[in-house]
Amino acid sequence: MRAVIAITLFTLLSPLSHGADDNQGKRLYTMYCTQCHGVHGNGLGVNSSRMSVQPRSHIEREEMMARSDEELFKVIQQGGKSIDKSNLMPAWGDNLNE
């Protein structure tokens, strides 16, 4: 599970990745995450300037590694409020599966 989340979050950060799983991760990240988290995962998406809470940067390795698989899965599935973070992070559970 951690590998799927890591691929989804970090695919854009690795220009050498070209596998099928990487392409799927990139497609999902582009579709669901870039509006807020940015195409480079830095938290500077097109919507970020209009948000009261800035989206998390996914390129901060220490911060991302500090998150458990369960926490990452939960926030993606149930939204930011599920882990006591911003309710601006939507729940994607109806759109994504494991």
Radius of gyration: 13 Å
How widely separated are the two ends? 8 Å
Main sheet overview: none
User: What proportion of the residues is helical, as a percent range?
Assistant: 40-55%
Class from helix and strand fractions: mainly alpha
**Number of beta strands:** 0
What does the secondary structure layout of this molecule look like, with pairings?
Blueprint: H1 2-10, H2 20-32, H3 34-37, H4 61-65, H5 69-78
Helix pairs in contact: 1-2
What does this structure look like?
This protein has helices at 2-10, 20-32, 34-37, 61-65, 69-78. The chain has a domain at 2-67. The chain starts with a helix and ends in a 20-residue tail after the last helix. Mean pLDDT is 85; it is low at 11-17. It is globular, with a radius of gyration of 13 Å. The chain contains five helices and no strands. The protein has 98 residues and is an all-alpha fold.
Keywords:
single chain, mainly alpha, globular
Give a short summary of the structure.
This protein is mainly alpha-helical and 98 residues long. Helices cover 42% and strands 0% of the residues.
